[in-house]
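REQUEST
  id: r-88c1
  op: predict_structure
  target: ATP phosphoribosyltransferase
  payload:
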Amino acid sequence: MTEKIVIAVPKGRILSEALPLLARAGIVPEAAFGDEDSRALRFATQTPEIELIRVRAFDVATFVAHGAAQLGIVGSDVLAEFAYSELYAPVDLAIGHCRLSIAEPAEMAARDDPRGWSHVRVATKYPHVTEEHFARRGVQAECIKLNGAMELAPTLGLAPRIVDLVSSGRTLKENGLVEVERIMDVSSRLVVNRAAMKTRAGVVPLVEAFRRAVEA
Ligand SMILES: Nc1ncnc2c1ncn2[C@@H]1O[C@H](COP(=O)(O)OP(=O)(O)OP(=O)(O)O)[C@@H](O)[C@H]1O
Ligand SMILES: O=P(O)(O)OC[C@H]1O[C@H](OP(=O)(O)OP(=O)(O)O)[C@H](O)[C@@H]1O
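RESPONSE
  id: r-88c1
  status: 200
  body:
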């Protein structure tokens, strides 16, 4: 029996946007896949040689980079943070649109001048992207790594600034923060394990199916 092609899909907010895209690419998973309450992690599809796994957004890149999954759907924020050389990201899936930005309390922003920064302390889930961004303009960034709820850091004195994803801006607003600088625009990408692309029949046609699904 040939080994199945495994596609890693993030649970959470991208899942609902990914389902119609998967369908347009001809990949129809069993019903439990779209059910956030299901505790299953591996799911069959109507195509016998393709199965899906549902993992955390940051772990999609890890599964695909190590060849445990051959393809995956992952935010460009995650790709920028990890920069895995084993990952090829051939298709912008045009879902999961947001931006990675620097934010700080509104009252601080009113008297702050980013041009005057020489050293900043920042709470973020993205320490590498943050350090690189600041280093490019000669600012040293001291990052406090958090995995969520970055918006709490300024009011609780953990760090005066945060680097986090922003979409509607509602989370920042409800926590008294304002966006002071955009670091990068984010969307989800199809990622492929480079070795699998060369050695596993069926991977390249899937990439083409996703490309057509985005254009449809
Ligand atoms: N507000 C948003 N709008 C649009 N896309 C977003 C938004 N927030 C996150 N994303 C995208 O979705 C991906 C997953 O984000 P999500 O918030 O679901 O992860 P998470 O809840 O932090 O994950 P986990 O619980 O696994 O740590 C991000 O990497 C990003 O590409
Ligand atoms: O600008 P907004 O539309 O408010 O979106 C921004 C929020 O979305 C993401 O978190 P998410 O809601 O995915 O929850 P998380 O804390 O689990 O990452 C991000 O980390 C922000 O907190």
